[in-house]
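Q&A log
Question type: sequence-to-structure
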Amino acid sequence: MLRDRTWKYINYVGEPPQLFNLEDDPTETVDLSGSPDHRSTLAHFERRLRELLDPEATDARAKADQLAKIASFGGEDAVRNRGAFDNSPVPGEAPAFRVH
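Response status: OK
Response body:
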């Protein structure tokens, strides 16, 4: 995701991007990514994102890290059986799991 004062651009690997005009639509209810009037803005943010990182490689690394973390906790079944958080713990707070 990239943003400036006016625009918020969200990239999803394998899915269409999203583009919001934050001045006109601060609650991000109107996705302008499909609008012909906004093609140049969308292209600008796509170029800018790729200057910063490779989205596909970053996505692949994140997914590999997630799989490794799941494996380190005993696999998917063990993680699911552990329960879920009611909130994300703040630094220093012990996670409190809620069993579903």
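Response note: The chain has a mean pLDDT of 94.
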